[in-house]
Specification:
There is one protein chain. Helix content is about 0%, strand content about 45%. The protein is built from no helices and 11 strands. The chain has strands spanning about 1-5, 10, 15-20, 30-35, 45-50, 55-60, 65-70, 75-80, 90-95, 110, 115-120. Strands 2, 4, 5, 6, 9, 10 and 11 form a 7-stranded mixed beta sheet that branches. Strands 1-3-8-7 form a 4-stranded antiparallel beta sheet, with no helix packed on it. The termini are far apart. The mean pLDDT is about 95.
């Protein structure tokens, strides 16, 4: 089970932190990632992290502004979003993958949360 939270409305330039709480066997996945889907657009990968090594990868559109990290003790993965822009407005989803290197390919991720809405104005 994956449960996202932390979404809301924020002005451009502001920050939000999105937690994704993980329960059950889902936490044994190798990779966890954040995806987002804006109205009228396809879902896109934002950032991914290896749950043991801590290796990360980011979409070019968020590099330098977003940070993905995890707290294994709390079974929670986070997306820290700074310097938010209106184009970051979307529903944000967390997902897990057991692929060796899933990158940010949606097909590689098999467990999904229900999402949390982020609106930047």
């Amino acid at each position: 089970q994956l449960v996202e939270s932390g979404g809301g409305s924020v002005q451009a330039g502001g920050s939000l932190r999105l937690p994704c709480e993980v329960s059950g066997d889902t936490f044994n996945a190798d990779w966890m990632a954040w995806f987002r889907k804006a109205l009228g657009k396809e879902r896109e990968g934002v950032a991914t992290i290896h749950m043991r090594d801590g290796d990360t990868a980011y979409a070019n559109s968020v590099k330098g502004r977003f940070t993905i990290y995890r707290d294994n003790a709390l079974h929670t993965m986070y997306l820290q979003m700074d310097t938010l822009k209106p184009e970051d407005t979307a529903m944000y989803y967390c997902a897990t993958s057991s692929w060796g290197w899933p990158e940010l390919k949606e097909v590689a991720y098999h467990n999904w949360g229900r999402g949390t809405q982020v609106t930047v104005s």
